[in-house]
Amino acid sequence: MTSNIILPILQLIVIVGFSPLVKGFINKIEARLQSRRGASIFQPYYNLVKLLQKDAVVSETSSWIFRATPYVTFVSILIISLIVPVLSVKVPLNFTGDIILIIYLFALARFFLVLSSLDTGSAFGGMGGSREMMVSSMAEPAMILSLFAVALTADSTNLSNITNTLLNDSILLLNPSLLLAFAALGVVIIAEAGRIPVDNPYTHLELTMIHEGMLLEFSGRYLALAEWASSMKLLVLLTILVNIFLPWGIADGLAFSGLIIAFALYVVKIGFFAFVIVIVEMSFAKLRLFRIPNLLGTAFILSILAIISLYVVR
Amino acid sequence: MAEHLFVISVLLYATGALLALCFFKWQKAGNFISLVFAAIASCFSITTAVILLSNGATVRLNFSLYHAIIKYNFLLDPVSSYFILAISSISFVAAIYSIGYTRLYINKRDTRFLGFLYNLFLVSMLLVVTANNALVFMIVWELMTIVSFFLVIYEHENPANMKAGFIYIIMAHIGSALLAVAFFIMFAHVGTWDFGFDDFRKVGGRMPEVYKNVVFFLVIIGFGIKAGIFPLHLWLPMAHPAAPTNVSMVMSGVMIKTAIYGFIRFYFEFLSPCPPWWGVVILIIGATSALLGILYALVEKDIKTLLAYSSIENNGLIIICIGLSMIFKSYNLIALSSLAMIAGLYHLVNHAVFKSLLFGCAGNVYYATHTKNIDDLGGLIKRMQITAPLFLVGVLSISAIPPLNGFVSEWFVFQSLLNGFTMPSVIIKIITIICGAVVALTGALVATCFVKAFGISFLAMPRTEHAKHAKEVPVVMYVSMGLLAVLCVFMGLFPAKIMMTVNHVNTHVLGIDIVNSLTSYDWLQMKIVRTNFTQLSPKSAFVFGLILLGITFGALTLIRPGFARKFYETWTCGRSPEPRLEYTATAFTRPFKTVFANLYRPQREVSMVYTVPKFFVKSISYVSEVSPIFEKYFYGPVSQFVLDISNKVRWVHTGSIHIYLTYIFITLIILIIFVGK
Amino acid sequence: MIILFLLIIPVVTASICVFIKKHHVSKYISIAGSFIALIYNIYLNYNIYTYHSILGFNNFFYVDALSILTTQIVTIVAFAAALYSAGYMEAELHDGVISEKKLQWYYFLFHMFIFTMLLVCVINNLGVMWVAIEGTTLATTFLVGFYNKKQHQEAAWKYIILCSVGITLALFGIILTYHSAKGVLEEVGYALNWSDLRAVADKFEPHLMKLAFLFVLVGYGTKAGLAPMHTWLPDAHSQAPSPISALFSGVLINCSMYGIIRYHILTSKCVGSEYSCTLLMIFGLVSVIVSIPFILIQKDYKRLLAFSSVEHIGFVALGIGFGGMYSVYGAVLHTFNHAVAKALLFFCAGNIFLKYKTTEMENVKGIIKTLPVTGTILAIGVLAITGTPPFNIFVSEFLVLAGGFASGNPFIITFSSVLIVCITLIFIGFIYNMYRMIFGTPTMDIPKGETSKFTTAAMLFLLFFVMIISFYVPPLLREVLRDIYDIIRNVQ
Amino acid sequence: MTQQIIVNSRAIDILAVLMLITTIILIGTSRLKTCIWVYAFRSFALTLVSGLIASFSGIHHIYITTAISLALKVIVIPGFLFHIVRKINIKKGQESLINYTFSLLLACGIILIAFYSTQNVIQFENTFMRHCLPIALSITLLGFFVMIIRKQAIAQILGLITMEDGMFFAALSTSYGMPLIVELGLFFDIMVSVIIMGIYVYRIKESFNTLDTDFLKELKE
Question: Does the pTM of the predicted model rise above 0.90?
């Protein structure tokens, strides 16, 4: 009974609470590697707090869709964060759905973001929206296929089961298909989270921007929610990656000690992947828009190979 | 009981049709009455279907009335009843909707024929899915085609509509000719002389392999034309927009589904057992149609054409499921076959609902603005405050966004595709998985397509005067659409209820009842189907979503109690925002045109007029066309060929009596030399 | 005797009509006459229904199911045509195209034409049947050239020359038959009587009968419009006044087909059905194929209808040739269906002509606006004539083709498959050409409104039959059809 | 008795050959009046044949037909045709579609075909039909041939009635003529059709002011 109370709260705390931190961490490392001092690692929190205390300026051409969007986005990511296993293989909303639901909840968030970007009637928003849709529609098949590769390996599309299976006989992790799937999923996550080389989260140049372009008209609370949602999205994606491919140490119950260890390891893993992302962003330039399909196409091919090799291995 | 209800409803449709003709003077009244009759009749048939599906019963209707040699007989088994349910629920809504929509035509055009044909159209679909005899089936099938043809060319002054009508009826007729051949071939093996489907059920499976394959392909093409599979889709995106919206609603929503009905009848009853490769063919066809359909929808600017193309895509999805089900069945994995079938039938009814909803709302937009071009719209959400959210619901559910119904069927599709890897042959495994990828890509493109459709036409500022002066439509129109929207939500939240009904169909067709293993309460669990275990509960997801929303909102209000919004114009780099600055539909899908350039073959010309000296651009004209490759490389040449041949032959009639006499003479000589001996 | 009465009716009507100057009198008389004939024929039909065959007038007349069906068609279409010509000629008179003087002759020839056709069907003696068929030609030549302009004279000339030639050839076949019958039958006077020939046909000299059948097929085939002897047909049909064209397409070619069928029976009894069936099939298929290009590309709507007649008579020949029970059943039903539907279409064409004063399709648009009733009926008729479900011709075509496929003979199955392709092409041509006329907006401004109540009545009368057969074949007709099948199968 | 039959059949054979020759002359000559004369002559020969047959077969109604054919074919029809020719005074000879030598060659071919096609029909016959049936058939086909090659309307009428002569001859030679009623019908038909054609010849002459049927090409595809 307690588990039904504790676990959700725990997961919400982890995802909601720590997602800005991840963002700050990435920025900090990046600044360091660019030999800048960089902003404090807690800067994202300051921004959020500030924004949350402000009123909002809303475009007069926009409609209720524009105002509803931040909530929808935020909440859909929240639900996802309750479906993915974070610290324990036991997942609070396990019965509500599986990876397919997760993918389509992301779609829900995206859907409304793009609508809101069109709603303001500014060309920037439309541009960002259309590019976002293109990137995501390229990314989605790769994502689904790579997740399917995993699902087929673990005989389930349900994340907690997947994690559980892979945790119990880790030998499954050692087959080539999972490695391929891992690679594909990595690329997809970079695309979905809007990082270099697919998108540049730091600028508002209409040439480069995708995700930021959609947030252009948001302000105050709305902006806060949108930003927060995007950082949560990043963390959730990383969590999925981590808990599927490196499930070791994740608690298989609700024992306090187990959770502590799981949390420690979780932080380490996330930190590692954040670092990887930084490295990638440091070592690549942003791709031209019409080069992105090639990159994602590669990911798609990888995921297909993952599944085919799965058949071959079996 | 049920059969009486069915007959009553058919009779009611008929009376409605006739009454429509009877009112010469008072068009309005006649129209109203006929449509009301249609609505009542569809209520009756809905009840019929519900009664039959509640206990999975099978009812035969054998009339002792002789058609030339055979008696009229109909069969209401669960399959039929399921389709009856889908058809007549849409008919009900459509009838109510039409009461409002037909005001466009009253006293401008002859609405008597509209009412007449409309009733006939609805009833013919009912008869198609119940006919139990080849002759009767052909008759009602073609009746459906012809009536819908007349409805397509209802506004026949417009040459484009006539062209659409021609292409429609010609292709449809070719299709039914092929179907007739299929029936003949099977009939030749039956021996008895009442072209009953029951005989086909007995004999079809035992036909020689060659004939079975021939029939298989005949049926693919014959029904495929109706289903609008690529490359036989040509008529669909022309005819559906040409028809009045209340008609195209029904055409897109349910008429093209009768083809699916045909597939089920043939491949699961007449011709079964089928070899696996049949299923694979169907699967590939479905995948192609799905992908190409949505790709063409994506770059469409005319909203009704866009919806028509998306119907092709959705039919493709359903056909994928049918194909999967066939493959599973041929490998004797009945449970999985049944799963795929559930996915297909579920998506069928879903698509019927949300596509009608979308068409209806498009009709509302047309009613209010008299334009179908998305780029001329915009800002309607402020002017049509009820239509907009309804359209949004439709858009969300067609893009399979949870918690709406589209998502559930999409989920089933993925699950059944995922189970493809239980099949023995590696090739088929890989094909299924690639289909999975195609479905995924399709899903993403659908989202894009409908974001465009909704965002460009309803949001931001109106782009033209049409849009600026739009008013909300009459009550019946959005009330009826509201019903559909509610259905979308309901079927999204409580899938188990629908499953129960679908299950009867499955148990009838495949003889296995997997629903209890599929679902407990309304969590869908797939534990028993395979080791592959997963759960889905859209309802609870939705509930938790609401809770979380509440929490978020509460927290935010705690942080800043007096939250206020200032309204200010959009920042457009300093100048005041105009409609001209908005992103258009063309621009929105421009990246896709570049990415899929091989398919679209876009022809772009940009011509600039410069001032002299040529420093400044005076005007830019930009034309971007997507070239229709199927017309260009397939249909055009074929028809041209036929016409050339016949032109060459026509010199035979030279007009000279001597030549004519010579024909007779030569014929005679040849005969008495070669035959007379 | 009762048969003789059937023949007397039109003769009397004709001879009354020729003396009456005033059209508004004579039209009623001709209508009445043809109506009586129709009713009387139904009565005869019941007799056949009970007795199966009637010999009369010391074996001069012989009526069985086959002939009664044909006479039924004749009388039905004749009544409709009489109704229609009342309205049509009224209008022509009003436009001053023709004089009342000519109308006397019109009605005279009209009823003589009907008389000859009835004679063809009820006569027992094959020789006299030949005379009667030649008689139809003679009676109608002036009707073809009725308007007596250049093209009408040309059509008439071609008509009489080609048909007479054909018929003369048929005579040779009859002579041969007579010769071979004389060897078998002791009573020489009856040696051309169908009722006697049928009994002893199997004793004939096979070579003789083969040759005879060839000549009869080519000869009567010319009159029936089987390709490649059909060349007179489009000219005559397009130039004759519409009611006459209706009679041509509807019943005249059926009468000639009737003659062919009689010979088919004799021959197949003598040399086995293979021979004549094959010939019929080949000619039928050729006719169907030949008609396609002219239907696909056509400028003149009456010619279009004429070519469709070629197609349909070919279809009937094919059905007879297929020979299976339901093929024959369907083929004979097809003669009826085609007669009513094609006559209906020619009536529509007549109304269009009166309205638009042209037979060029380009100049005819928006019929549904200018002639609402005609337009609607034409739309239905086109669907019917192209064998589209649910209309009557579909039923017969379905039966014929089903029989063909079920026959199991690869030759026949190939024919049926080709046939389906042809039918589809013809459908395309028809729909494309006709619906461009029916719909759209009229090019010139033409007053709205139907021609006259007579024409509308005539069309509705025929439409009634079309619709009835579409959904329900009355038992009387069904029994007649079964009888005919037995006759053709030579079941005594 | 047999003697007489032989004599008769010889006579009939001779007449038959005569008729055949006249028909070939019909093809060979260009002057219309000659053609009509030739036709009249052949009809006379035909009448002789029927008279002979009537005499030795002793079937009475053949006398009647003989009389009728004498009246009709030898007197009335040629007279009528001459009348027409005089009315619409046709001076110049009628031209044909193909030149004479070639048409004569074709005529020979046609005769061959006639013999060839009837040979296995007549092989069992023992009467004079053996020789007459092929000749009758070739007369018919030649008449047909005349209609094809001659542009002249009247020539076509001639061709048609030539065909009918062939028919009569066939009927007589094979089976002593048809039953009376049929014969009467035939005569009636021939008369009426010739009259009708005559009328149309007038009309065509006055509206096309030519009798060259090759000009009748209004109606075509």
Answer: yes
